[in-house]
From TrEMBL:
Function: Hydrolysis of 6-phosphogluconolactone to 6-phosphogluconate.
Residue intervals of the Glucosamine/galactosamine-6-phosphate isomerase domain: 15-224
Key words of the record: Hydrolase
Enzyme class label: hydrolase
Lineage: Bacteria, Pseudomonadati, Pseudomonadota, Alphaproteobacteria, Hyphomicrobiales
GO MF assignments: 6-phosphogluconolactonase activity
Name this polypeptide is given: 6-phosphogluconolactonase
Annotated metabolic or biological route of this protein: Carbohydrate degradation; pentose phosphate pathway; D-ribulose 5-phosphate from D-glucose 6-phosphate (oxidative stage): step 2/3
Gene Ontology terms: biological process: carbohydrate metabolic process; pentose-phosphate shunt
Membrane-spanning residues: none
InterPro entries: 6-phosphogluconolactonase_DevB, 6PGL, Glc/Gal-6P_isomerase, NagB/RpiA_transferase-like
Tagged with keyword Transmembrane helix: no
One Pfam family this sequence matches: Glucosamine_iso
């Protein structure tokens, strides 16, 4: 088995609440540090259901949210009126209290397909300061992270470390609707890169992904093996 270097660091918590508290404290410290040194901070977060507790804790952080830019790592191609909208979930659970002052850059635009919006989205993300200060990834039980789905049409492009494209359109059998995702290089050069997973099933998937195998089967393997100086931090609770 080829060693992953630097090896990811697994942080285990007894409860999901304890995990949320610890992750929020760590992310808030990174954002506050960036604001103190550069005047602004950039945070990329995941959708789905797992981040809700973490978002609730992070929204309580006493940092200068006016200088924080928040974006999603991926989005389903649905408007915010949809139950499936990651942006709507983010607004409900993170962009409140002081965090309501953060500047949110959504990935969904009012266009019939993701392809119709790619040029505009690309320009938006080219203007965003890089590297991100923090990128917090999730993972599905099928091993997808962001919208890097097994058997996705554009998976190779989305996880190509040499791509210039910040955003690609994705369609995959397990994805439901069409999607857009930030690409691997944009995510893995974040100062703080974390993978937030909960439950025994996802832990087992993560452990399988640590072993050699096809990225098309478990796309999270691409994140685990991406070149980085600082290790990936994995946050897990049962
Ligand atoms: O569809 C998505 O799924 C993953 C995992 O979501 P979860 O509900 O199992 O936590 C998420 O990381 C991604 O951002 C989202 O678009």
């Amino acid at each position: 088995m080829d060693a992953i270097t630097p090896a990811p660091v697994l942080h285990r918590y007894q409860t999901r609440e304890a995990l949320a508290e610890a992750l929020a404290t760590g992310v808030a410290a990174v954002l506050a540090g960036a604001i103190a040194t550069r005047g602004s901070a950039t945070l990329a977060v995941s959708g789905g259901s797992t981040p809700k507790r973490f978002f609730e804790r992070l929204a309580e952080a006493e940092i200068d949210w006016r200088n924080v830019r928040v974006t999603l790592v991926d989005e389903r191609w649905v408007p915010e009126t949809s139950e499936r909208s990651n942006a709507a979930m983010l607004r409900r659970h993170l962009l409140k209290n002081g965090a309501a002052e953060a500047r949110f850059l959504p990935l969904y635009m009012d266009a019939p397909t993701p392809e119709d919006a790619l040029t505009d989205l690309g320009e938006r993300f080219q203007r965003l300061a890089r590297p991100f200060d923090a990128a917090i990834l999730g993972m599905g039980a099928d091993g997808h992270t962001a919208s890097f789905f097994p058997d996705a049409d554009n998976l190779a492009k989305a996880i190509d470390m040499a791509t210039d494209a910040p955003v690609v359109a994705i369609r995959a059998p397990g994805a439901g609707e069409p999607r857009v995702t930030l690409t691997l290089p944009l995510l893995v050069d974040a100062h703080l890169l974390a993978l937030h997973i909960e439950g025994e099933e996802k832990l087992a998937v993560y452990e399988t992904a640590l072993k050699d195998g096809a990225t098309t089967d478990l796309p999270v393997r691409a994140v685990l093996r991406a070149p980085r100086t600082e290790p990936l931090n994995v946050f897990w609770a049962p």
